[in-house]
Amino acid sequence: MSEQVERGRGRGDVDGYEKHGGFPVYRAAEDDGGPDFGRLIEAMRVLQDAAVSVSAPADVVRQAAEQAEALAALLEPHRVPEGQQPGGRSMGLPGRGSLLMLPWTVDKFDATGVRSTGVFRRFHMGGNGAAHGGTLPLLFDDLFGMITHAYGRPISRTAYLHVNYRKITPIDTPLVIEGQVDRVDGRKTFITAKLMDAEGTVLADGEALMLVLLPGQP
Ligand SMILES: CCCCC/C=C\C/C=C\C/C=C\C/C=C\CCCC(=O)SCCNC(=O)CCNC(=O)[C@H](O)C(C)(C)COP(=O)(O)OP(=O)(O)OC[C@H]1O[C@@H](n2cnc3c(N)ncnc32)[C@H](O)[C@@H]1OP(=O)(O)O
User: Fold this and answer.
1) What is the residue with the minimal CA distance to atom 37 of ligand 1?
2) Residue 19 CA to chain centroid, in angstroms?
């Protein structure tokens, strides 16, 4: 984890951050969920990739279903309320340890912007080796959230998000996404970002308006 990301852990204490909106208080998980949480999440991701790409004999599918059901039953008694689980709050893990997020790694996180690197996996495929078009706004939206946070803005929500698909975004290929705050106008934070391949070719670019929540807004 970079020094910038480490510093970002303390943002929950920035004056006004917790008081804004009706959003629950979120803090980064102290220990990234413990020694095996990252392993669990990565194993789940591999399982997701497998689940959407295998064509297995019926007996294998039956065994896999039974094992998946047993695993779910093992975890079920340990559900906790939103904001207490390490998933999504583990800043040292790819995708913050959230299965929903792209498993990307943040390597820059400060007021000048946020950069993250990673690959779209088989799980994220739309067709013909390209990432599903819906997965790109997910990547952009989460980056925009981090950029807002790294800039020191109070909790904000995405009012709009625009993505231009410039070229096919391939799966299993190292990519980088980078963006920054362009301007601030009262509650409004305007952000832009670019998704690029290793040669710097822009595959997609995006812009968003993030609005600081008013007191009580969910
Ligand atoms: C989860 C964090 C883990 C914690 C770990 C610790 C640290 C973490 C570090 C980083 C965090 C990382 C990531 C964060 C994760 C994710 C970020 C994703 C964020 C989202 O994914 S969030 C979900 C999608 N999002 C929504 O679910 C919004 C639904 N919506 C609403 O809740 C309202 O809509 C709201 C509140 C947005 C505004 O409502 P409102 O009533 O307060 O404001 P109002 O409408 O009056 O607009 C005020 C002024 O904005 C202009 N305006 C409004 N909308 C516009 C538009 N679309 N286009 C152009 N202008 C627009 C108006 O024209 C007016 O402009 P003017 O003042 O000039 O007249």
Assistant:
1) 159
2) 24
State the complex-level ipTM.
Answer: 0.93
List, for residues 97-113, the tens digit of each pLDDT value: 999 999 999 999 999 99
CA-CA distance, 99 to 84, in Å (whole number)? 16
Q: Which CATH class is domain 2-212?
A: alpha beta
Q: Decide if 189 contacts 212 (C-beta within 8 A).
A: yes
**Which string of DSSP letters, residue by residue, matches 49-87?**
HHHTT----HHHHHHHHHHHHHHHHHHGGG---TTSSST
* Distance, CA of 112 to CA of 186 (rounded, Å): 19
pLDDT tens, position by position, 63-95: 999 999 999 999 999 999 999 999 999 999 999
Question: Do 173 and 35 form a contact (C-beta atoms < 8 A)?
Answer: no
Q: What does the alpha-carbon distance between residue 51 and residue 43 come to, in Å, rounded to a whole number?
A: 12
Which residues' Cβ are closer than 6 Å to ligand 1? 8, 11, 26, 28, 88-89, 141-142, 145-146, 149, 157-160, 188, 209, 211, 213-214, 217
- Asked if residue 16 lies in contact with residue 156, where contact means CB atoms within 8 angstroms, the answer is no
- Residue 170 is given by DSSP the state B
CA distance 31 to 202: 35
Instruction: Assess contact for 126 and 43: CB atoms under 8 A.
Output: no
Q: Give the residue extent of every domain in the chain.
A: 2-212
